[in-house]
Specification:
- The complex is a heterodimer of chains A (117) and B (231).
- By secondary structure, chain A is mainly alpha-helical.
- Chain A contains three helices and one strand.
- In chain A, helix 1 packs parallel to helix 3 (66-116) and helix 2 packs antiparallel against helix 3.
- In chain B, helix 2 runs antiparallel to helix 3 (139-168) and helix 3 runs antiparallel to helix 4 (174-230).
- Chain B has a three-stranded antiparallel β-sheet.
- The longest helix of chain B has 57 residues, at 174-230.
- Chain B is built from four helices and four strands; from the N terminus they run E-E-E-H-H-E-H-H.
- The chains are: A mainly alpha (117), B mainly alpha (231).
- The interface between A and B is large, with 38 and 45 residues.
């Protein structure tokens, strides 16, 4: 979510600078990668909560039925790792989005410099 | 009005290649040129490889989750202990292919951000003053690459050994199951070490971004003063 804040800061700050220079404010449309980043973060978080609840339920099966416990623990382990992996995948897309936004910001600075010259 | 921008940072191919780096009074080591220097090799690599690594990671996670369900089913249907042990090793191996891919994708995405600063920062300086100063690659950036490579190697070795151990499990003999379990414990350490190295590399990458931002803010002030003085 902090990466989202960085993107918000770039968007807000970029607009403020353009407005302060008296130039028309151009803002990058929300890239698809930013939408996918939010989706991956949500899926990863839900999977993490799901595995947490799953482990809590499975823990109660340990004393009563060891076979059921072993069966459930066998898929909860990979689910736990996948939840983390999906969150990390979201971070990849957030960083990519930041690089796109920075690219736009530099392009806009060059436009303003060209107009000023 | 929302605007779209080109997908890749532009590389300046016609740049004047400087011959040496100079240390500024503020301790930043820069190379001076008339034009932006464009992307360096690791940044080019970051541009090209972040997406394949990302896709590979997502696919490996999906495959590992499916293998987890297959193993769970094998336990439920009381399949052979050897099969269950084999599936355990293969699942872990595939999962960590996913981890090394996605952590590498993060590192490459950071390299891409640094590439935008380098190439576009140079272009802006060219336009604003005609005197371009580009930071030399900081030690933290070199450390980031080294750490990522070491982390990747550690995980790839662990994954290779997981596959080897899975293939070595013969039937359900106690000896081979015990060996498989022993290897499982040993390789966990190697895998975690690999993930730790990847994460350390990412920290170094973020430190490099901070370094670049510090230089950028100082350089913006300098360029603004140069422009004011030239009017």
């Amino acid at each position: 979510m902090l990466l989202g804040t960085v993107l918000g800061g770039l968007r807000e700050g970029g607009g403020e600078v353009q407005a302060a220079l008296g130039a028309p404010v151009k803002t990058l449309a929300m890239p698809t990668s930013a939408k996918a980043f939010i989706a991956l973060m949500a899926v990863g978080m839900m999977a993490a909560i799901g595995q947490f609840v799953g482990y809590a339920v499975v823990a109660t099966q340990y004393a009563g039925n060891a076979a059921v416990f072993a069966t459930n623990a066998a898929w909860l382990g990979p689910l736990r790792e996948v939840a983390l992996g999906v969150l990390l995948s979201g971070i990849v897309l957030a960083l990519y989005t930041i690089s796109r936004v920075l690219g736009f910001q530099f392009t806009r600075i060059r436009e303003l410099l060209t107009v000023a010259a | 009005m929302p605007t779209q921008t080109p997908n890749r940072p532009s590389a300046t191919k016609t740049s004047k290649i400087p011959t040496r780096a100079d240390k500024r009074p503020d301790e930043f080591i820069v190379v001076a040129s008339d034009q932006g220097l464009g992307l360096n090799a690791p940044q080019e690599m970051g541009n090209k490889l972040w997406a394949p690594m990302f896709v590979m990671g997502v696919m490996a996670f999906a495959a590992a989750l499916i293998l987890g369900f297959v193993r769970s089913n094998a336990i439920a249907t009381a399949a052979g202990a050897g099969t269950i042990a084999q599936l355990g090793h293969v699942t872990t191996g595939v999962m960590f292919i996913g981890f090394t891919a996605v952590l590498s994708a993060i590192t490459f995405a950071i390299a891409r951000i640094l590439g935008v600063f380098r190439s576009e920062g140079g272009n802006v300086q060219t336009l604003a003053s005609g005197h371009v100063q580009t930071l030399t690659m900081p030690a933290a950036a070199k450390g980031m690459i080294l750490s990522m490579v070491m982390g990747m190697m550690a995980i790839i070795v662990a994954v290779g050994l997981h596959v080897y151990v899975a293939a070595s499990v013969v039937g359900a003999s106690e000896a081979s199951l015990a060996t498989a379990a022993q290897w499982g414990s040993s390789l966990e350490g190697v895998r975690r070490l690999g993930v730790g190295m990847h994460l350390f590399g990412i920290v170094l990458g973020l430190a490099t971004i901070v370094h670049v931002l510090r230089f950028q803010s100082i350089r913006i002030l300098e360029v603004a003063k140069e422009r004011t003085a030239s009017r």
